[in-house]
């Protein structure tokens, strides 16, 4: 629960005779208050800190500069300082990506909690893969973590005829695509996906450790190998930790196909 004005951590006095520069004392005290959970809703501005600690604005700026270098706050010229946001995972638009690789590329530790890994029948998923409704499938459901914080609920269906060796894989810290290539000799070469913003259900909010005010990105992917569907996946990713980017040029630009939303079932 965020601290209120009545129970916030009090500032410690800065001692001019302590032999330590005032900005370093201020830096240390702000770091202490951050560790104790203060400033979760709003970080104080330069003038507020100047008045609270009785120091010059230059001293405040030096302390904030040091905190910025530590990655604890962001503070740029002309903009108020604020708490640094959790590491964000960025995915390229229009490219075949691996969420596993993208998390690691962001210098965050990747781990998954495997909720389900089994062979099953799912008529809807089979049809999405262009198969008969009774075709056996391999189903993998994971809670994806980045630096031990929930990032995504990931569900994938693959034809059992080619993906059955995946039942022996440990997906707690590995990529589905790496295991698919190593164990099944199948590499994805393309596909299609749809990304849209959704409001997670209460159960999904609990798994992702988010409140009702945080939206999520629902990514639905059909992965193919040489044009043949081999993976249908739905990923529900925290909107506060995920973004997509697109490269474009003045000459060629880029195109986005807009489609009317469809209702998809989602298993979580």
Describe the structure in brief.
Keywords: DNA-binding, Transcription, Transcription regulation. Pfam families: GntR, UTRA. By secondary structure, the chain is α+β, with helices and mostly antiparallel strands.
Explain what the structure shows:
With about 270 residues, the chain is an alpha+beta fold. The chain folds into 2 domains: about 60 residues, Orthogonal Bundle (Arc Repressor Mutant, subunit A), CATH 1.10.10; about 160 residues, Chorismate lyase. Helix content is about 25%, strand content about 30%. The protein is built from 8 helices and 10 strands. Strands 4-5-6-9-8-7 form a 6-stranded antiparallel β-sheet. Strands 1-2 form a two-stranded antiparallel sheet. The two termini are about 30 Å apart. The N terminus and C terminus are likely disordered.
* Beta-strand segment tally: 10
What structural category do the secondary elements indicate?
A: alpha+beta
The main sheet comes to: 6 strands, antiparallel
What share of the residues does DSSP label as strand, in percent?
A: 25-35%
Q: Which CATH architecture of the largest domain is right? A: 3-Layer(aba) Sandwich
Q: Could you say what the CATH topology of the largest domain is called?
A: Chorismate lyase
Measure the end-to-end span.
28 Å
Q: What Rg is obtained from the alpha carbons, in whole angstroms?
A: 24 Å
N-to-C series of helices and strands: HHHEEEHEHEEHHEHEEE
Estimate the global geometry from the Cα principal axes: elongated
Mean pLDDT: 80
Q: How much helical structure, as a percent, in the residues?
A: 25-40%
């Amino acid at each position: 629960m965020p601290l209120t004005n009545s129970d916030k951590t009090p500032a410690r006095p800065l001692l001019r005779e302590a032999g330590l520069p005032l900005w370093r004392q201020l830096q240390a005290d702000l770091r202490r208050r951050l560790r104790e959970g203060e400033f979760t809703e709003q970080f104080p501005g330069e003038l507020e800190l100047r008045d609270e600690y009785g120091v010059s604005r230059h001293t405040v700026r030096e302390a904030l500069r040091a905190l910025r270098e530590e990655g604890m706050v962001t503070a740029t010229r002309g903009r108020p300082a604020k708490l640094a946001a959790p590491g964000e995972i960025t995915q390229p638009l229009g490219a075949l990506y691996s969420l596993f690789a993208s998390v690691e590329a962001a210098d965050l530790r990747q781990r998954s909690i495997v909720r389900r890994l089994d062979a099953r029948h799912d008529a809807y998923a089979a049809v999405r893969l262009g198969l008969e409704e009774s075709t056996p499938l391999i189903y993998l459901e994971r809670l994806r973590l980045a630096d031990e914080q929930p990032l995504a609920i990931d569900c994938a269906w693959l034809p059992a005829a080619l993906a059955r060796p995946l039942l022996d894989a440990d997906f707690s810290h590995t990529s589905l695509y790496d295991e698919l290539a190593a164990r099944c000799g199948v590499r994805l070469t393309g596909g299609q996906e749809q990304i849209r913003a959704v409001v997670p259900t209460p159960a999904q909010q609990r798994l992702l450790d988010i409140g009702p005010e945080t939206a999520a990105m629902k990514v639905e992917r059909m992965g193919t190998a040489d044009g043949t569907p081999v993976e249908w996946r739905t990923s529900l990713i925290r909107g506060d930790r995920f973004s997509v980017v697109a490269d474009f040029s003045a000459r060629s630009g880029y195109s986005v196909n807009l489609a009317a939303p469809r209702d998809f079932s989602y298993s979580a």
